[in-house]
Amino acid sequence: MRSILxxxxxxxxxxxxxxxxLSKVLFYQSRYYFVNFTRNVVxxxxxxxxxxxxxxxxxxxxxxxxxxxxxxYGDPHNQICVTxxxxxxxxxxxxxxxxxxxxxxxxxxxxxxKQDLTDNHTCVPQCLPNYFIDYxxxxxxxxxxxxxFAYLNGSCLSSCPAGWFADDALHICNxxxxxxxxxxxxxRYCVNTCPPGYFADITSGYICVTICSNVTExxxxxxxxxxxxxxxxxxxxxxxxxxxxCVTLCPESQNTFGDQTANYCNLTCPWGPTxxxxxxxxSQRCVSKCPINPSLYADNTxxxxxxxxxxxxxxxxxxxxxxxxxxxxxxRNNITRRCESTCGQDPV
Length: 348
Prior knowledge:
Helix content: under 10%
Distance between the termini: 154 Å
Oligomer: single chain
Radius of gyration: 45 Å
Strand order of the largest sheet: 2-1-4-3
Low-confidence stretches: 1-20, 23-31, 37-42
Mean pLDDT: 87
Shape: rod-shaped
């Protein structure tokens, strides 16, 4: 009989002759394996390497991938049945668990994703709990990559759905924001600073709002935060109840005036006992002295800066006030209601 080692002894056997061939293979089992070539009848051949498309199982038989033992898959690179597909720095494969395939593949089928865990490299339709589908790389990840955010459906999304906010630090979509950041409804991001026209509102639960929820707070356009009126940032120094914001100019429509003693748009200005101020309609502010341009005068009856004095009062340019009498060497003009240094008639 020819030497198996020198001539690679071929054993064509039927079921009754399998024992004799098996004894030979067991003797040389480090070199030879069984393969059933005909598959529809029991004919076997002993070979040193399994043919392409077949895989060595634990009983030294070359089998199709679908005939690898349960929970094992055909590894095309090593031509063996494996429980975990090869996955290293140079080769990354994943088990296609389809019972009609059962192969280690480099690319998972459509709508399946690479589960890249130690001793568990599998193509899965859905990631394990606390893992998320990165659609760019089609891999299940514990943390979504930059520019994407983990959502409850197990996916990494490029933008969060309505009612959810993207947390850049944690790479997640969340209904709340962490680390003192605020929910921005315009971008659906967690932000440190709210966009123009919005204000960071802690009272409402760290959200950017157009109207502050606390009636004692006002939107500060500089800091973009809800602040108490004494904290309004220049030049927006007046707290306005109408707009609920810090403003530079109190609204004329509300007939309010900027009171710097209170940082507030007030209906009245301070009047005694130590401070007397007038409502200046040209600046919508409370002033101690009415302006020269436009030329206005303080009226003690209306507590306002007026263009012309009324009643028995006359405008005094030096003090910008309405007075019942003129200073020395000035004359009352009953037509203009002003104190003038010269006139066309005798002094009165």
